[in-house]
Input
Amino acid sequence: MNLVIFIFIVLLGFTSYYFGRKKAYSIQATNTRLTALPQFYGYYLAIWCAIPAFIIYSLWAIFEPSIVKLIILSDYSNQGYLDDELNLIYEKTKSLSRGQFSGEITTYLETSAEKYLNLRSIAQNSKVVLILAIIIASIVYGYKRISSNNRTREPVEKFLNAVLFTASLAAILTTIGIVFSLIFQTIDFFKVIPLFDFIFGTHWYPAKAFVRDASEPLDPSMYSDTFGAVPIFAGTFFIALIAMCVAIPIGLMSGIYLAEYASTKVRQYAKPLIEILAGIPTVVYGFFAALTVGPFLKDIGTAMGLEVSAESALAAGGVMGIMIIPFISSLSDDVITSVPQSLRDGSYAMGATKSETIKKVIFPAALPGIVGSILLGVSRAVGETMIVVMASGLAANLTFNPLESTSTITAQIVVILIGDQAFGDPKTQAAFALGMTLFLVTLSLNIFALRVVKKYREKYE
Amino acid sequence: MIKINSKNVDVFYGKKQALFNINLDIEENQVTALIGPSGCGKSTFLRCLNRMNDVIDICRVKGQIIINDFDINDKSCDVVRLREKIGMVFQKPNPFPKTIYENISYGPTIHGMAQSKNEMDEIVENSLKKAALWEEVKDRIHEPGTGLSGGQQQRLCIARAISVKPEVILMDEPCSALDPIATAQIEELIDELKKDHTIIIVTHSMAQAARVSQNTGFFHLGELIEHGSTDKIFKNPENKRTQDYITGRFG
Output
């Protein structure tokens, strides 16, 4: 039913566009000059048709359920029910009305269910009637307002402005929503686990939290030495460091090659090929690291007499580095290409060679942008999950040996939130605390990177 | 005395021929102006003289350009040495995004011309003095060169070019991005520089060519139509097209 109303409004919108434009044409035909192009009159009428109807429709959708609930529950007032019980009665009524109720059916409940169905159908019908009436009224009003001296361009432009504003607002509000959902859980977590223990503790062993019997009251002291985040922060930055050791030199050098040395033809093929790397799903990188690189490193290590874990930080970090190469090479290629040709000419004209020009003029000029691209790569490395979960193990060892397994923030969030979780449990909330910290780290990296890139842009424009 | 002697120079951009059989001699320690309408090939010819056309992938140069008895288009020619001897100043001031000092010391450093910091300081100071910029910037030579005004930036680029003591300086419309006062300063400077350097200047302004040059070459559609002393070209041109261009009938 709702879908029908929706389609109906949309169709009426198109029709009124047509009629609005037609009226504008007919005014034009009498040699009167319009204040806007005819299609603006069409848009104007379409907006008049759709917007009031949508507003009423959404208001109705928001308020209908609570009003129906109020009316149903008014029968039960003054009978000494608690709020929770009233809610239960209402839920029972609803499921009975759908014929899905399997409990004991009382006469009270039956009357309520009947009343509920009744109310719903009245509401549905009056909604349709009201919306139809509003559409017709607003179309007639809008149509009458169309005349040669009525302004339509400004309202239409304002409407478009509002639509675009709403779209960007949606993205911002979602971000704020995510942050808030993190904040409250994080605060709850730190009520049980002291911030100091979280930041400076060196034991991360959330599985211990499973041992707790849910019926027992929460005893913070039993969590000491459980949520010390140092090992996983160390692991995160250690693996990111390995990744950047792979990604920065290779990415940067291939970026410089593409921008300065490669002929147009090579560049034409090489650049998309490198960018294919960016299109490989991280889970594929993950099993490449876990099933190919990890065992390979272990075999080599064993042959050399070294003890190498099959799930090593080196395997995860190395593969992650390969994943990040295209980000760095592509971005630094763009940055280097955007260094003005006049600087290159100036340097060549002084008798500088290609490598001197790159080293002394182009690279310094592009440095802020290159730093920006590296920082974006770092924030990717810190936030990368799949490769680490699959290739680097889940036990949070505090180690800086690249041949041992270690774990990261993201991998631990996965470990914590896989399977059954109890809300309000410190173990679950730990994931939010980790998510919050990760968010803060990548956010500050991104802000820093964007600043650097912006500074670079100011230099040449 | 003839400094540069070009014989039968043809230039191609891909399949399109940009210069046809150019034969032009450049006099030492004089200013030679190259004039002509846009797209006539005068800048292309200028860029042949220090092989800057090498930078453009699709560009091919044929013919001989002889400087100091040596054909610069020969395989044995070292471009790095050539460009040390033949400096260039561009249309738009293009100082490196470095300090004023580093802008000047760039050339002497890559050619290993200074043995000590003192020597380098001297080169920088002399170059800036010769470019008539020293007095204006001596208190801030360690500030970015990009912070100077347009005219100062162009003089900085000239100082950069003369820092390696080139024999020839090529100037590709050096004043087209500058205001009249800065233009006058640069023209005065060109006059000063011709004592030590041979100067070839491409310009769109005929008044400028008349003011600064001793010799003029007129290019049209990739051909060198006429060349000779500036006086003769401006007062008594032989070719009808030269006369039409100079009197402003086309171009």
Notes: The first strand of chain B starts at residue 2 and ends at 13. The CA atoms of residues 114 and 120 of chain B lie 5 Å apart. The radius of gyration of chain B is 18 Å.
